[in-house]
UniProtKB/TrEMBL annotation:
Organism of this sequence: Elizabethkingia anophelis
Coiled-coil region: none
Domain Signal transduction histidine kinase internal region: 429-507
InterPro entries found in the cross-reference section: Bact_2-comp_sensor_kinase, HATPase_C_sf, Sig_transdc_His_kin_internal, TPR-like_helical_dom_sf
Family annotation (Gene3D superfamilies): Histidine kinase-like ATPase, C-terminal domain, Tetratricopeptide repeat domain
GO molecular function: phosphorelay sensor kinase activity
Keywords, ordered alphabetically: Kinase, Membrane, Transferase, Transmembrane, Transmembrane helix
Gene Ontology, cellular component aspect: membrane
Membrane-spanning residues: 387-407
Designated name of the protein: Histidine kinase
Length: 625
């Protein structure tokens, strides 16, 4: 496909999001589930409509969530809130918030909706593998049999997979199936979206006839609705068609109509400038092509939008070449390639910068100490040189002075080397204590997974393995650190306890309370500090009990230390083996705290009773500030 068509393809894709926004704003206003019976069908309707709302709209929904869920149970409110947290999450935390959505006891539709988003999280590569497509096909088959309300979304997911894999024919087929099963297919906004996507598919295949058919249908609906914004887009589609027909003068005419409407409604964007400049260039109106390319660059700089910057210079290069100005043409094509290369380099720079900052942070204290030592040494050398210039004859005093400084420097160097050795020793001891925890935890977790597999719980095994893989990745990453944030420690604990809940079929509950005076994102704790005690509660405290076990974890800042309390309602230490396990956890934790916080009031206190097991850990307050 020619480059200028790719630019217009970008424009059409951006249009879809705007079109969906228009449709969704209308639908969102119609939402009002307050006072309705608590059913999973209400949630499915809410989720489908919210899914296509832009981020700003989702934020407004989240603010009004309490009024939307008024009258629902605590459990149902949690479902809506966890779902909205996922909908608003960024890419690096979407997996975490998706796993937080509780589908236990929910309908098949709710579980299938969460699985749909799980599939979407996997669409992050340039090609979709056979395992994913086979899994989607199986879901489509089951959704068809039970006539699921989510069937049209799975058809659309399959269309996306084929599109990513460059199979336009199959992608078109499943997109049509998605539209046919869409409950909103008779609305004008959904019809316009349908014809615009078909226009996109036809353009991918360079099928001008089909492009014309779908453009006219979209234009007819836009005129009927008297929607000038949608009508302006159809004018740009006409410009694309005339460009393919080698009728650039007509392409310029319709592209200008679209551009002027966007300009009059303050909706200009880089692609609008690019499209108009390309049409002028194709019509050999090189001066106008240069004019709108330059204006597009100025607009992008003013609005801090660099998305189409490289393309502007490509158009400028072609326009100057058409005028015979090869010097400027070469200059602009050179800029084009530099910007393209910069986009690639920026990604690498971000990774290098992240590593560099980590290295600098770890060596900050050492660097400052080294600089201070060098400054002191330089000052002393200058002082010595001054004395040597004025006291040439005082050989004895000079010799004594030199000897004094020599011995002092040697003493300082010896003390510095000793401190470095002690510091390395403390770090090695700290890592050793961490490694005492990890093999034991890994063994128990793998044993849990083997149990599920032996019971032929395939779905649970896959979910368990997914959570386990994420947890192990975080453990391996955090084992390199002396300290992590309270927030990261809580995430590790939640992942671990969720794995154990799956193993014991939710035979226990947990709560984690972070007091308001604790800053979870900035305050630091040693990694895997609480896991050994939580494991003792689950494995030994809740063994052979006839009631629901509960674990309560509380983080609270006192005057000059942070207090962490772990309280369970288990059977306490009944067997000698239980006492040994708890003693080992307590002993290892105390040794870790002695290594990490020497000379402080850090402590580990345990209390065993018939009502359960209580652990109180006190550590100094550390922050990243």
């Amino acid at each position: 496909m020619p480059n200028y068509l790719k630019f217009r393809l970008l424009y059409i894709i951006s249009i879809f999001s705007l079109l969906l926004t228009t449709n969704c704003d209308r639908k969102t206003k119609e939402q009002n589930i307050a006072g309705k019976q608590n059913t999973d069908n209400d949630f499915i309707s809410f989720a489908i409509k919210t899914d296509i709302v832009p981020r700003s709209g989702k934020e407004k929904i989240f603010i009004k969530l309490d009024s939307i869920t008024n009258g629902l149970s605590v459990k149902d409110k949690a479902l809506y809130r966890d779902y909205m947290k996922y909908a608003l999450s960024k890419k690096d935390s979407s997996d975490y918030y998706l796993s937080k959505i509780d589908t236990v006891g929910r309908s098949v539709d709710v579980r299938d909706l969460i699985e749909l988003y799980t599939f979407k999280e996997g669409f992050k590569s340039d090609a979709i593998g056979p395992k994913i497509t086979e899994a989607i096909f199986r879901k489509i088959s089951s959704e068809e049999k039970r006539k699921s309300p989510l069937l049209f979304k799975y058809y659309d997911l399959m269309a996306q997979a084929f599109y990513i894999n460059k199979n336009i024919v199959k992608s078109t087929e499943y997109f049509k199936l998605s539209f046919d099963n869409n409950p909103e297919k008779n609305t004008d906004s959904e019809k316009i979206k349908y014809y615009e996507v078909l226009f996109l598919y036809a353009m991918e295949s360079s099928n001008i006839k089909e492009m014309e058919v779908n453009q006219k249908k979209a234009e007819r609906i836009a005129r009927k609705e008297k929607n000038e914004y949608e009508l302006s887009r159809t004018m740009d589609y006409k410009a694309i068609i005339y460009g393919l027909k080698k009728m650039p003068d007509s392409g310029v005419y319709y592209s200008k109509k679209s551009f002027h409407y966007l300009e009059s409604t303050n909706r200009l964007n880089p692609v609008a400038f690019i499209n108009l400049a390309i049409n002028y260039k194709e019509n050999r109106e090189f001066d106008n092509a240069i004019k709108y390319s330059d204006e597009g660059i100025k607009w992008s700089v003013k609005h801090k939008d660099s998305s189409g910057m490289a393309e502007f210079y490509a158009v400028l290069s072609d326009a100057y070449k058409g005028k015979g100005d090869y010097k400027n043409s070469l200059k602009n094509i050179d800029t084009f390639y530099k910007l393209k290369l910069k986009n690639i380099n920026d990604i690498q720079k971000d990774k290098v910068y992240e590593i560099e900052q980590k290295f600098k942070s770890e060596n900050k204290d050492l660097t400052i100490s080294s600089l201070k030592t060098k400054n002191k040494l330089n000052n002393r050398i200058i002082l010595q040189q001054k004395w040597l210039m004025f006291i040439v004859g005082a050989t004895f005093l000079l010799g004594g002075f030199v000897l004094y400084n020599f011995l002092k420097r040697k003493n300082l160097q010896s003390r510095a080397e000793k401190l470095l050795v002690e510091n390395d020793k403390l770090k090695l001891e700290q890592k050793t204590f961490q490694l005492k925890i990890s093999p034991h935890f890994i063994f128990n977790t793998v044993s849990n997974l083997q149990g599920l597999i032996s019971e032929k719980e395939t779905t649970k095994s896959i979910s368990y393995l997914t959570k386990f893989a994420r947890l192990m990745r975080n453990i391996l990453e955090y084992e390199k650190e002396d300290f992590i944030s309270v927030e990261d420690e809580v995430k590790l604990l939640e992942d671990y306890m969720q794995l154990q809940q799956m193993r014991f079929k939710t035979s226990f509950e947990y709560s984690i309370t972070i007091n308001d005076n604790v800053r979870p994102y900035f305050q630091l704790v040693p990694p895997m500090l609480l896991q050994p005690f939580v494991e003792n509660s689950i494995i030994h405290g809740f063994g052979n009990i006839d009631y629901i076990g509960k674990i309560n974890i509380i983080f609270e800042n006192k005057a000059d230390y942070m207090e962490i309390i772990i309280q369970d309602n288990g059977r306490g230490a009944v067997l000698p083996t239980d006492v040994n396990k708890q003693s080992l956890s307590t002993s290892i934790t105390r040794q870790r705290l002695n290594v990490l916080f020497p000379g402080t009031n850090s402590s580990v206190k345990t209390e065993v009773s018939d009502n359960g097991f209580r652990v109180e850990i006190n550590i100094p307050i550390l922050t990243e500030d």
